[in-house]
Amino acid sequence: MARQSARFVCQSCSAVYPRWQGHCESCGEWNSIQEEAVASAPPIGGKAGRAKSSSRTKAIEFVPLDGKNERRPRLSTGIAEFDRVLGGGLVDGSAVLIGGDPGIGKSTLLLQVMAAISKQTRTAYISGEEAIDQVRMRAERLGVKDASVELAAATSVSEIIAAIDQTDAPKVVVIDSIQTMYVDLLDSAPGTVGQVRASAQELIRVAKRRGTALLLVGHVTKEGAIAGPRVLEHMVDTVLYFEGERGHPFRILRGVKNRFGPTDEIGVFDMTEQGLQEVKNPSALFLADRQEGIAGAAVFAGIEGSRPMLVEIQALVAPSAYGTPRRAVVGWDSNRLAMLLAVLEARAGLDLGGRDVYLNVAGGLRISEPAADLAVAAAIASSLTGQALPNETVVFGEIGLSGEVRTVGRSDARLKEAAKLGFKRATIPRRPGKDKAGKSGRPEKDTALAITEIGELVQLALMLSGDDTSGTTRR
């Protein structure tokens, strides 16, 4: 009989220690190490043991690289935004991990996806957190109660594998969530590092052998990362994050890993009473509530995955009531804002050291690309001077520490998306051989104002509306 042994595992990074200690030396977390009991088989030693082991082992078979492979078509989910993030649909035998904050809509999205796929093939939704009646109530609210989706409430991995490891098993299976699953061989509680790793490994192994598409729901930590061992993200084929602000109806499905498609692709949804609705034109949705003639607002033409997208960036510069000015950021990198403020002070002469600066990306979208530097700088300069930017102008470009404005990728796609929504002017980095500014420093109608350094933005960008920039404090 296998004897029981204990080990101490960090619940954040899965590092193993021989005894308990309060601080994890691997990831730096405190009080994250817990005791786990594991069953260890007796070792096989000596020549007899090695001979017995080698006689049972079957050598692997190598095949040529240029062999023929049967390529099966992807399984379309029926939801275009979901298929976009996956790269065109589900691949047979793939494992997809979907994470997000509690209540963001992960279960709602997957139930709608399963209802759409059930029109083509057999699907199963296995819930470890809710009872079957609760899932049926959600399906009735979403209007998909008549879909032929098979339901089950289970947390034992062995029981789930017995149900899906069959020739006539469902082709698409949802596990909601992986943190509630447990393997009988481990004595640790569900949700621990050992249980999450072992449960995911067993489910993925069966799914790949049977060609079943597996969708795993994962909880997230307070930092926004998927809870459990980091190895969980390496085990699956695709990792998706479902993002969104509680105060906004918009939801962003963002792909951060995809072995069968592009990464950094996003899908946009609108949360309604009938569930999640696809957003065909995200730019128009994010700019729907934009007010014209407001100082401190700039429209940024960005790229999210393969899709150009327009979003409004809002800035507020106000006198500081305390000795240390405050910088608050929503939807952008706070460290990059601090760097940009230093560049505006040192290279453009704006007096921002004693002022509070607040920055917000409207609509709940989070921007990470450096091309938003110029739009943020324009919004800050507009708020500081009190001069509103022209309504029909978009801004994009990267700013360096020396104050230079650098070109960014896919400029033509950004301008094309802006023109489609009625924007006639753009403030962009100068592209060698393409952009030439007019003699007066103003662009002609339906042209782009190309600049090379941040000082030109302060002097020329606001001149598009004929305003004077004398309110800018120069050094």
Quick overview:
The protein has 475 residues and is an alpha/beta fold. The chain has twelve helices and 21 strands.
Fold blueprint:
Elements: E1 3-10, E2 16-17, E3 33-40, H1 46-56, H2 80-86, E4 95-100, H3 106-117, E5 123-127, H4 132-142, E6 149-153, H5 157-164, E7 172-176, H6 193-210, E8 213-218, H7 231-235, E9 238-243, E10 250-258, E11 266-272, E12 275-278, H8 282-286, E13 297-304, E14 307-319, E15 327-330, H9 334-348, E16 355-361, H10 373-385, E17 393-395, E18 398-399, E19 405-406, H11 411-420, E20 425-429, E21 448-451, H12 454-460
Parallel strand pairs: 4-8, 4-9, 5-6, 5-7, 7-8, 13-17, 15-16, 17-20, 20-21
Antiparallel strand pairs: 1-2, 1-3, 9-10, 10-11, 11-12, 13-14, 14-16, 18-19
Structural write-up:
- The strands form four sheets. The protein has a nine-stranded mixed sheet with strand order 6-5-7-8-4-9-10-11-12. A seven-stranded mixed sheet has the order 15-16-14-13-17-20-21.
- A hairpin with a 7-residue loop joins strand 10 (250-258) and strand 11 (266-272).
- It has helices at residues 46-56, 80-86, 106-117, 132-142, 157-164, 193-210, 231-235, 282-286, 334-348, 373-385, 411-420, 454-460, and strands at residues 3-10, 16-17, 33-40, 95-100, 123-127, 149-153, 172-176, 213-218, 238-243, 250-258, 266-272, 275-278, 297-304, 307-319, 327-330, 355-361, 393-395, 398-399, 405-406, 425-429, 448-451.
- It folds into three domains: 3-42; 80-280, 3-Layer(aba) Sandwich (Rossmann fold), CATH 3.40.50; 285-465, Ribosomal Protein S5, domain 2 (2-Layer Sandwich), CATH 3.30.230.10.
- Residues 42-46, 436-446 and 464-475 have low confidence and may be disordered.
- The radius of gyration is 27 Å and the shape is globular.
- Helix 5 (157-164) runs parallel beside helix 6 (193-210).
- With 475 residues, it is α/β, with parallel strands linked by helices.
- The termini are far apart.
